[in-house]
Specification:
This protein is of the alpha/beta class. It folds into three domains: 205 residues, Rossmann fold, CATH 3.40.50.970; 161 residues, TPP-binding domain (Rossmann fold); 185 residues, Rossmann fold, CATH 3.40.50. The chain contains 24 helices and 23 strands. Helix 6 links the parallel strand 8 and strand 9. Helix 3 packs across helix 18. Keywords: Hydrolase, Thiamine pyrophosphate. Belongs to the TPP enzyme family.
Length: 616
Amino acid sequence: MTKTIRLTMAQALTRFLANQMTMIDGRKVPVFAGVWAIFGHGNVAGIGEALYQVRDELPTYRAHNEQAMAHAAIAFAKASFRRRMMAVTSSVGPGATNMVTAAALAHVNRLPLLLLPGDVFANRIPDPVLQQVESFGDGTVSANDCFRPVSRYFDRITRPEQIIPALARTMAVLTDPAECGPVTLALCQDVQAEAYDYPESFFDERVWSTRRPRPDHEELAAAAALLKSAKKPLVIAGGGVIYSQASNELKAFVEAAGIPVCETQGGKSSLPDNHPLNMAAIGVTGTSAANRLAEEADVILAVGTRLQDFTTGSWALFRNGDKKFIGLNVQAFDAGKHRAAALVADAREGLLELAAATAGYKAPVSWTENAKQGKAEWQKAAAEVTGPTNAVLPSDAQVIGAVQRTMGSEATVLHAAGGLPGEMHKLWQAGAPGSYHAEYGFSCMGYEIAGGLGAKMAKPDDEVVVMIGDGSYLMLNSEIATSVMLGHKINIVLLDNRGFGCINRLQMGTGGANFNNLLKDSKHEVLPDVDFVGHAKSLGAISEKVASIAELEAALARAKHNDRTTVIVIDTDPLVSTDAGGTWWDVAVPEVSQRPQVNAARKSYEENLKLQRVGD
């Protein structure tokens, strides 16, 4: 006879989560490092009480904003190479919908996140409850249905026994490198508190390992033959290289064949920046070294990348008429994009087998040496734009240079959205795999500070440096207080250009008037003068403002020895960006306008459209 234990649905949920394990470096650790929770009606009585019962095995962390705590959970998973993750629970209504943006971010970036929003009553007797979103035409809808398009798996738990199959599916999705992404279990608030006789075996400890699919023999043979025919081969390293922890295999593969490598935002740090075959960033935010090769390459091996438009220059970057793509990806949806020869496999296993299948192949020496020369030229150009300056308002690049010189390549640097990703991608000299942490899949402003907290929780011994603009800081800064409360020190460099400088430059580049991006160009009676130092201090951080690059370097040196989160503010020039490197990006320009600048931009736009390869 099956032994059972009587628990509420919420108690069963939390007990199950606490018993999921994984092995990292020979040590067994919980898959779930904890649960972020902001309690309200719909989760405080049910899952709140259940979390209290397992607080020692499954820690609960209190945050200040629902979107931010989900960002922290996502960053933790990313910094853990998707081997460990966190869950997030909110109340019904705005607490839940606050997390939809974070769910979309995790979905786009293929990162594991367990969302546990409270939901309306399954029995519907009290309807409409506080914060309930009522659909006039569908009685089954709640606010949590917003999560459906941004979840890999969505379920609404309307009976306590449903949590058994739902959690089985949840773990299958969260731990599968191909399906990986956010899971939403909407927990009806009455059902959270309902009891059921659960099988004791449901709570048995389980150890999850990373699935590493090996390539199909025919796909491998086709990919190997294509690569061996290449005269100008190129590797694009995406985030899949990082998540698969395949950096050593990538290094061995390209060194044996003499193939240059370029990196996406997600794949940056796949190889150390100083590796002679690493051409660094590719695409719109790429280096001249990488993009020059991409224009000429005849066979492009895309490893673990979804080939986003910033990587491909909106499919105008690759200009060799005879080019062919090989898509090495654990997800078939990504592997076969743009008529690529699909090689569906784990990045590490795929590189190992592709190396064996192409043993003896060498790229022409002239191609490899040409790549190395281009890298040397790029390094010289990068040094010029990142060097020290006495300018009243330094550029973002000069701030990046100061952080690089002071904190070194061993620090974990984190950023998202705005102008910094473009400069960081091409200019930051990453060291160890995962030391470069960018959220540029969803390009979500507000990720940075909460993400820095999550990264620090995953890498407590690392110096974590958050690079953020004033616009993003003002959107979401509350987790500074959480970082202080939890004792997780992060270093925040706040670049104040008094507005949305990146979009202002894009607006100018497409012929638009300076309008509604910089504060001075927005509708106002009085220009705001935000005291960022005072604000950060009010949240418990150490903070100071610096007036020069030299002062910034001195402040960063002090920050290394501070005992809690530190915010360093520096004014920067909103109009200056690095001209070197980069390529075209498809941002549609109006066909007709009263402004001659727009008409001129449209003419240039139409010329660039001719470079796009439809169907490639």
